[in-house]
Amino acid sequence: MHLLDEYAYGLWGSVLFNILVFGFFTFAAFKPTKKRDWRTLGAFTAFMVALFAEMFGFPLTIYFLTSILGNKYPVLDPFTHLNGHLWVALAGGSEVLYSILHPLSNVFIFSGLIVIAMGWRGIHGGNGDLITYGIYKYVRHPQYSGFMLMIIGFLIQWPTIITLIMAPILLIMYVKLAKKEERKMIENFGQEYVEYREQVPAFFPLNIKKGE
Fold this sequence. Notes:
Layout (H helix, E strand, L loop, with lengths): L11 H19 L4 H23 L2 H10 L11 H4 L1 H5 L4 H30 L17 H16 L3 H29 L1 H9 L13
Helix pairs in contact: 1-2, 1-6, 2-8, 6-7, 7-8, 8-9
């Protein structure tokens, strides 16, 4: 039997393994030092726990949807690994869609980890100065950008009711934290930071100038 067609839940060892692996790499990239950093990492860790608990443990979202839709649910066997991908299930169990979404989600997830690491190296290598080079030349808050990319990646890979609820809450949390940090940066660097903020976007490099 194809592995994607096998029952894929109740694997609590896999739940723990994935939480520890992604938690370790996220911790290593983010390197929390302040209370704010730990709060940011803690909120994202809660998102990962909810995600992997449904991905390998108990498929709450699938039980909920199948109980509502009954025989109108788009796949006959919703409890295989392939059909556990909600986007794939809604497409009727398309392995082609699975082969597209899975690597695409990994691009977002690991790009997020890289961006977080680049942001950490920049800010902690600045010795208290305003950092406007490296990745900070393109975005003002690369570490939050990285968490956003990872959240998007996980939602592409394995959306659930809980993570779909948590995702916008986390994104709003990161935006508020960024604004709070910017008020502190203006206090520290004054007009220099105000000018930097006017030239560089907050999270995604939407206005990169040619030649930069």
